[in-house]
Design a protein that fits this description.
The protein is of the alpha+beta class. It has eight helices and five strands. Strands 4-3-2-1-5 form a five-stranded antiparallel sheet, with helices on one face. β3 and β4 form a beta hairpin. It is flat and about 75 Å long.
């Protein structure tokens, strides 16, 4: 009969729901990964940092003042609290005349040691630049033509070179030092001097630049994080539609 002739084959009726269910499960999995991934990684990194500080500070604490001696469980973050209080107290004492005298005596001893002297001076300059809040290093973001003509990379603009380095650089144009972070780990990269005309400064914060580099361009500046789940769902639906509309390979007789 005609009704039997127009009915689709049984295998096609069973195949469609399976394909739709698999696509929906894949979309749900990716959406859950987007939601839980950043939260879990943030918790893991924070917990690792707190544990690392606790392991460094706890051996220096007298046993009488350790919370685990009075509680049946270990209190995470106690070493971090002691470290913050200790550093704040150290800064308070250093601001006074007696504290500055002790620091100067300690620096005098370190400056007399050949190898330790170079390490201490370099680390002191880095920490003073990063945490003093007075410097302008790495507060501006720019673009340089690297690694080949027509290819542009994001750099963090630092301080101009000193007089000795400037005198050794070729050309009469002023140079500037930049740091080029590598993806996906922005703590590694290249440091070099480039003419000021070769740097295009852009309106972007260092946090946005770091996010752009770590995500390898996936997360663009100004992107609303709340829209990422919707964009991921739309991308999965588009992929599902493309698969369903793709021409199937004809069966070989």
């Amino acid at each position: 009969m005609s009704m039997d002739t127009d009915a689709p084959p049984p295998e096609q009726v069973e195949e469609a729901p399976k394909h739709g269910l698999a696509a929906r499960l894949r979309t749900y999995f990716l959406t859950g990964l987007v939601v839980a991934g950043p939260v879990l990684i943030t918790i893991y990194l924070t917990w690792s940092f707190v544990t690392w500080v606790d392991d460094l500070v706890r051996p220096l604490m007298p046993a009488l003042y350790r919370p685990e001696n009075y509680l049946p469980f270990r209190v995470p973050g106690s070493g971090l609290i002691v470290a913050i209080v200790g550093l704040t107290l150290l800064g308070f004492l250093t601001a006074n005349l007696a504290g500055r005298t002790v620091v100067e005596l300690g620096e005098m001893v370190l400056n007399r040691m050949p190898i330790v002297r170079a390490i201490y001076r370099s680390l002191k300059q880095v920490f003073e630049t990063l945490f003093s809040g007075k410097g302008s290093s790495f507060r501006r973001v720019g673009l340089v033509e690297f690694p080949a003509p027509g290819m542009w990379s994001i750099v963090l603009i630092s301080q101009p070179p000193n007089s000795e380095v400037s005198a050794s650089l070729p050309g009469k144009e002023d140079h500037i030092s930049v740091f080029l972070p590598c993806a996906p780990n922005p703590t590694t990269g290249f440091f070099f001097y480039v003419p000021k005309s070769g740097v295009i400064e852009i309106d972007m914060t260092t946090e946005q630049a770091a996010t752009l580099i770590m995500s390898a361009g996936v997360v663009q500046p100004g992107t609303d994080p709340k829209k990422s789940i919707v964009a991921l769902a739309e991308l999965a639906n588009a992929a599902k539609a493309a698969q369903s509309n793709a021409p199937k390979k004809a069966d070989v007789p």
